[in-house]
Amino acid sequence: MEQAPVPAQGEEEQEPAGQPSLPERLGQRPCTAPHSGPLPETISAVKGAAVFVLFGNGGCTGTRISEDLFLSAAHCADKIEGDKSRGRYLIEVKGKMLPVELAEMGDYDEPAGKMQDWMLFRSKTPSKLEGMPIAQFPTSDEMSKLLSNQAQTLGDCGAAVWGIGFPSKGYRQHPRPPIPGSKTLFLSRGMLLSHDVFKLLNVLAEERGVVYDHHYSPPLPEPDVDLDAGWAKLAEARVCYEAYEKIGAKLLFHSTDFAGGQSGGGLFSEETGHILGIYPRGYGPVSPNHAYPGPGWTYRIDNICAESKVLSDHDGCARLMGESDGQSLLRQVARANDGW
């Protein structure tokens, strides 16, 4: 993992016929060493797109995704319902707080099971964003490739990803240093996980009180747990997770570190630097050691493209959702002629 500026309920799934057994799927083989040295160029180039977002008396993370739009999480604003400053949002850019206005919010109401946990802000002062990076979206082919490169076993390697945000101070499992907090940009490297590995790591964390995340001590254990029974025991902690399942949300499971305040922050591909999703409500079923939450998920960027009206004319969404170059060109011409 890295940190900056100092590198710091329904029925359970049934196994498909003809597929390897659970022990075979959760066997072990070596994974790569943790990242060390300078940040990858792809991540270094995009980290400046992250902003600290002030929601009333609370803070979260946002990411610039166009000349004037920023993406964050709806639950950040939802949690300050009734605050006298509700509706007043600011972002911090180069040490200055700049005003933004709400452009759109996903259909988010957790008690009602509505889990479109994203929101868009529009800058009121776009001229003051000059030189600030804009996060790019993956293509549909890139997303498909990433989804085929998830860790399928406990010791397997998935595609490398980075979480970028502004979390509050937190303590992480040894030997990681603490999360710095105080609005310090924090970057954490992890990998994409299959659903089975995500579930297994949470069950192991609950039963043994230790997070196993491929990169750090203690050594990976033999997967000698009853996954289905262990997962069933986490029913109370899985309420938020299952709310996403019920609406059919597409989630990305991964092993990056996270702490409060990083909600709404982006998950990025190490290979391309493209944003793959954001940290939503409820990071993971298990939170050992009071701060390091273990394997979690992000709300995929293609969910947001499909649900947003404002992003219907966003070129990145068009490419991600499979629009051809010809269609994109025609749409841009129509917009230029005020026909969009």
List its salient traits.
6-stranded antiparallel β-barrel; 340 residues; Thrombin, subunit H; 6-stranded antiparallel beta barrel; 23% helix; alpha+beta
How would you characterize this protein structure?
There is one protein chain. A six-stranded antiparallel barrel has the order 1-2-3-8-5-4. Strands 9-10-11-14-13-12 form a six-stranded antiparallel beta barrel. Mean pLDDT is 78; it is low at 1-30, 80-86 and 329-340. Helices cover 23% and strands 21% of the residues. Strand 12 and strand 13 (275-278) form a beta hairpin. It has helices at 22-25, 41-46, 74-78, 140-147, 195-208, 227-233, 239-246, 301-307, 315-320, 325-336, and strands at residues 50-55, 58-64, 69-72, 89-93, 96-105, 108-109, 114-115, 119-123, 160-165, 186-193, 251-254, 266-269, 275-278, 296-300. It starts with 21 loop residues before the first helix and ends with a helix. It is α+β, with helices and mostly antiparallel strands and 340 residues long. The protein folds into two domains: 46-129, Thrombin, subunit H; 143-304, Trypsin-like serine proteases (Thrombin, subunit H), CATH 2.40.10. It contains ten helices and 14 strands. The chain is globular, with a radius of gyration of 20 Å.
